[in-house]
Each structure stands twice: as structure tokens, then as C-alpha cells.
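Give me the fold.
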Amino acid sequence: MSSKSDEVFIGAIDQGTSSTRFLIFNVKGQIVASHQCEYENHYAKAGWVEKSPTEILESIDTAIAGTCRRFNSLGYDASQIKGVGITNQRETTVAFDIETGEALTNAIIWNDVRTKPLVRQLIDEAGSATRFASINGLPITTYFSAVKMRWMLENVPEVQAARERGTLRFGTIDTWLIYKMTGNYVTDVTNASRTMLMDIKTFKWSQECMEFFGVR
């Protein structure tokens, strides 16, 4: 008969727009322990929705700690968690410095609309909102990450300076969290497909899209 110490589990980070959860599942897919912490986004101006990337990371720490306390109280140990997955708010965009590891400005949340004037400009330049849809599957709108990156490059001095130094990195929330937890600068195709920068046929970054949006 197996003991509790023989059991293995999988963890899941669920990083959402207004809260973060960490859940631990057993091999049957049942939730054994979880903890959720809610937080407020910042609304500096009308139409702006942003959040400190550091506060997002802290919410992860809080959720994991709360879940692990519950997990331990059930007689299990964190060493029994054999892997951790991430699900996250998609188009939200973070800019950080690869040398310091620090965020350069607040994350622009997916439903932020500060880029409306920029989007109109880009559509005029492209000739159509769907100019790149055959490549990235998306129209040019405020929703997706590329225009948020472009806005940061044009309006945030810290982002501009990091680009000049060659230390600027952009990412969706999964990229930011994985970088801070492991030191690896990565994403996956499900998040990349929401940036307007990935070719959905090849699953590679589109040079044409990156050049157009100015983030190459």
C-alpha cells in the first residue's frame, strides 16, 4: 500500500486580470489545495489599465505560499510537486531589463485603450486593419501586445534607454513570470499568437510584422 509520501502532484499558476491562484492537482486531476489572492489594477488616466509587474510577481509568491501551507497541513511536502504550469492573462505586456531583471514600467493590461491614436496611425500606414491577418491572424487593434510595445517605445524613457543599451526585453505575463522564477526568457505559441508578431503558419516570429510595429 502506498503512503502519502509516495504520491506526486502538479502545480498550476493561474494569473488573471484581477487575481492570482495557485492550485495543486493529484494524478486524478482533482484539486488538493489552492489559494487565491485578489488585487487592484491601476487607472492612471481614462482608458488606462496597468499593474506593477513586481506586484503581479508578489501575488504569485503569496498564492504559492498560501497553497503550500494548506498542502503541508494535509501531510504532504512541496517536494512532491513534480511540475508547475502557467495559465495567464494573454495580451498584457511587460517591459523589463535583462541585465537588472527589473521591470521598466507598469504592465499594460489587455483591456487598456491608451493606444487608440497609435492604432489609427498604424492602420493608416498599413492601409487596412487586416493588413497582416494572413500572417498573424489578427487585426490591428488596441487589444494585442505589439501596439502596447510600440507605445512603450515611444513614450517611456526607461524603455527607450534600455533599447539603446541592448538590454530591453518585452514579454507577456508568462514570459515575465518564467524569467523571474527561472532566469529563462521564453514564451509559448499560445501567448505569442496574441502579440501580432508571430506567423501562425510557421509558429515563428514574423520579421515583417516586427519591422512594421517597430519592435525588431
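Residues 53-73 form the longest helix (21 residues).
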